[in-house]
Specification:
The chain contains six helices and twelve strands. It is of the alpha+beta class and about 250 residues long. Strands 1, 4, 5, 6, 7, 8, 10 and 12 form an eight-stranded antiparallel beta sheet that branches. A two-stranded antiparallel sheet has the order 2-3. A two-stranded antiparallel sheet has the order 9-11. Helix 1 runs parallel beside helix 5 (about 190-205).
């Protein structure tokens, strides 16, 4: 009961303190997170000291907390991948587990700007999220069907009932400082206590993002195709190449 209360409190703290979203909104996005964020070397909409927007290369802006106002969009999303026997990850849309399957689930909390890409070569338009994130990554082996992998509270109960096994880790993308680096917990087993600890670490990291010593390095974190039904047909490697050096 104590762990349950701790998890619930940590989850509410994360939602209220960091994003101000409801639990429903937390899992209601169409953005797909990369398993490994890509470095971004293109242009951004930069909010300068006069509160005016300029188009600037990320190489020409100072990578400290003054860059954060240029990333005004807060997006929380969950991306689910299924792993086959050869370790290849495939994007899946259904959040319910199948017995004896392996999954990678990314719970991403991002501060970004959204860039609209018009790809004339494929006649596909898509959004790219450029910015920073704190994420939790759960590597799961399901021992039961019907578990909602997108719901952290349900995942915690399933772990305690031994319906799933796996590991959990916290990753910080595009944010660095000596203090933040020390806050990131090591990879641990998947349990209600590890989920609660990960949520607490997330909230603490978020509280230090605006510290004077924090360095900000924009990352290409996620994408969403307009129409969304085309997401499954996108070549992520080609997409990464297009966005990485994008200019307006």
């Amino acid at each position: 009961m104590k762990i349950k209360k701790l998890l619930t409190a940590a989850l509410l703290l994360m939602i209220t303190f960091c994003w101000g979203q409801t639990v429903h909104d937390l899992f209601a996005t169409n953005f797909i997170s990369f398993t490994v964020p890509q470095s971004y070397e293109g242009q951004i909409s930069y909010l300068n000291s006069n509160d005016l927007i300029e188009k600037k290369s990320v190489h020409d802006v100072k990578h400290d907390r003054t860059l954060l106002p240029s990333f005004p969009n807060l997006v929380s999303n969950v991306t689910l991948y299924e792993e086959n026997g050869n370790g290849v990850l495939s994007l899946i849309g259904n959040s319910l587990s199948v017995n004896n399957k392996s999954y990678t689930v990314i719970y991403d909390y991002t501060q970004t700007q959204t860039i609209l890409i018009n790809d004339a070569s494929t006649n596909v338009n898509y959004y790219a999220l450029i910015g920073i994130s704190v994420r939790m990554v759960a590597k799961i082996v399901s021992k039961s069907s019907g578990i909602n992998l997108a719901n952290l509270y349900g995942l915690s109960l399933a772990a305690d009932k031994k319906k799933i096994a796996g590991s959990l880790e916290v990753r910080v993308n595009g944010i660095s400082s000596q203090q933040i680096n020390a806050l990131v917990p090591v990879t641990t087993d998947l349990s209600s206590s590890s989920i609660a600890n990960a949520l607490q670490a997330f909230a603490t990291v978020k509280s230090h993002i605006y510290d004077a010593e924090t360095k900000i390095t924009p990352q290409f974190l996620a994408f969403s195709v307009i129409g969304n039904d085309k997401n499954k047909d996108i070549d992520i490697n080609k997409l990464s190449e297009k966005v990485r050096s994008f200019t307006f």
